[in-house]
């Protein structure tokens, strides 16, 4: 099997089932890896015990592989406690049998600590976790003092005992390291996914309303100059009503993609309403922001939203405001909003970068007309 095929099978096996609750996914991924690491470790011991002629222990390792496979199946079906218990019982039986067959000083009791660690990081109920931990600790003491010391009988040279001891130490160490690294990596990935979910709009992939406002607030607090461009798709209700909501969604994704392609790396895009986007342009003068808006408009007019049976032309109206135009961030946002409103009321598919200073803009058609009259057509990009 090529390494690519092996990796894709590994990924498929360790990927949580789609219907698994999100708070269970992290633990699922960690434990599937643990079962797989355990299978790999048992595979190492089968030839080792066969080589020193203790076939029963080879068979017991084989049985543990089967138990880990059962644990994987149980875990995939959401039966996590049963899965972990299957693994614990089989591993404990093997450790005790190995200790009894080979005596102490072979280091097999170290595997109890791996089991204890697995119990502690599992998502079992706290009481069950404590109970199982106590059980594992009792087993460590009992086997160390009662079983291994009395029943052990190493029939080979002391060199092979030392080799087995070294192997056990190395395998315990490797298991610990792999499990800890895996826990860390999966926790990181899960946290990153939750962070992205918390800050991004699930439909378009751009920042969500809270995240874009927080980002703007941070620039505002730092006294960093910026421009805010508020965009709203024109006649979006018409698109929804005539082509369906899923086409509307596709148009929103198309818009977000175009914005992403047109803007700089340093700019931020957020979806702040149904069909409304806010773009934060750091260190951008009015002229530069006008250039960005013009570029955006040109890109949009040259790139209709391609759907299966039609190309849908989309236009946007925009309101631009600079951070220097307000005493508070809220003022700047409101100004961009009023200019967007002006762009809408004066025919759509245009940008307003001036006017709208008076809050009266929001009061109605008559006032809007007055403001429009006061706002020269040069405002339109
Ligand atoms: N497909 C889709 N539609 C949405 C979403 N969020 C809001 N809408 C719709 O967007 C439409 C917005 O309509 P309006 O506010 O009247 O705006 P408009 O039709 O674009 O008109 P103007 O803005 O004046 O050009 C409504 O029909 C909402 O139901 C969404 O996530 N997906």
UniProtKB/TrEMBL annotation:
Gene3D superfamilies membership: 3.30.70.270
Domain GGDEF as annotated: residue spans: 224-356
Reaction(s) this enzyme catalyzes, per UniProt: 2 GTP = 3',3'-c-di-GMP + 2 diphosphate
Organism superkingdom: Bacteria
Membrane-crossing segments per the record: 30-48, 130-151, 163-186
Pfam families: GGDEF (PF00990)
Record's keyword terms, sorted: Membrane, Transmembrane, Transmembrane helix
UniProt cross-references to CDD domains, sorted A to Z: GGDEF (cd01949)
Name this polypeptide is given: diguanylate cyclase
């Amino acid at each position: 099997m090529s390494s690519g095929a092996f990796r894709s099978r590994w990924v498929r096996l360790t990927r949580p089932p789609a219907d698994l609750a999100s708070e269970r996914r992290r633990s699922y991924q960690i434990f599937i890896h643990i079962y797989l690491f355990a299978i790999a470790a048992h595979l190492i011991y089968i030839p080792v015990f066969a080589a020193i002629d203790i076939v029963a222990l080879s068979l017991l390792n084989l049985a543990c592989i089967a138990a880990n496979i059962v644990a994987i199946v149980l875990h995939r079906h959401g039966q996590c406690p049963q899965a972990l218990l299957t693994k614990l019982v089989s591993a404990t039986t093997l450790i005790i049998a190995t200790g009894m067959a080979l005596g102490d000083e072979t280091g097999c009791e170290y595997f109890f600590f791996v089991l204890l660690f697995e119990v502690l990081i599992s998502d079992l109920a706290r009481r069950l976790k404590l109970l199982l931990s106590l059980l594992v600790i009792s087993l460590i003491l009992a086997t160390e003092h009662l079983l291994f010391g009395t029943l052990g009988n190493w029939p080979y040279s002391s060199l092979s005992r030392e080799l087995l001891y070294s192997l056990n130490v190395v395998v315990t160490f490797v298991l610990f390291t792999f499990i800890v690294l895996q826990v860390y990596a999966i926790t990181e990935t899960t946290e990153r996914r939750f962070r992205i979910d918390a800050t991004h709009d699930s439909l378009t992939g751009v920042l969500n309303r809270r995240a874009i406002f927080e980002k703007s607030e941070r620039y505002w607090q730092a006294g960093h100059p910026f421009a805010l461009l508020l965009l709203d798709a024109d006649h979006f209700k018409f698109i929804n009503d005539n082509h369906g909501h899923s086409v509307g969604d596709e148009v929103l994704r198309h818009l977000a993609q175009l914005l992403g392609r047109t803007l700089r790396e340093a700019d931020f895009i957020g979806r702040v309403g149904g069909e409304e986007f806010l773009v934060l342009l750091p260190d951008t003068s009015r002229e530069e922001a006008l250039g960005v808006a013009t570029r955006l408009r040109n890109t949009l007019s040259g790139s209709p939203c391609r759907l299966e049976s039609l190309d849908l032309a989309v236009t946007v109206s925009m309101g631009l405001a600079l951070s220097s135009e307000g005493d508070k961030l809220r003022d700047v946002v409101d100004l961009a909003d009023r200019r967007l409103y002006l762009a809408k009321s004066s025919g759509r598919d245009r940008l307003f970068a001036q006017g709208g200073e008076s809050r009266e803009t929001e009061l109605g058609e008559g006032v809007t007309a007055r403001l429009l009259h006061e706002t020269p057509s040069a405002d339109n990009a």
